[in-house]
Amino acid sequence: MDIRINHKMNIRSLAQDPLFNANVRLFIKDIYELERLKVQTYAVYRLHDHFIRKVDIYGIVVAIESRNSTYVYSVDDGTAVIECFATNKEQLNYVNLKPLFQLGDIARIIGHIIITEDGTRQIEARTIYPVEDANAELLHYILTLRDMKSYRKKFDRPELIMWDEDNDDKGDPIAVIMKLEGVKSDERVTFQRAFLRQIQANASNVFSPTTYRDIPELVELAKQALRAESGGEEPKKIEITAFFNATIQSFFRSGCIIEVYGRNNLYKLVDNYHLAQLIIDIIREAQQVGNDISTGIFVEYMVVKVSESDEYRTLCRKETKIREILDLLVKQSIVYSSDNREYKLTS
Question: What are phi and psi for residue 32, nearest 5 degrees?
Answer without folding.
Answer: -75, -20
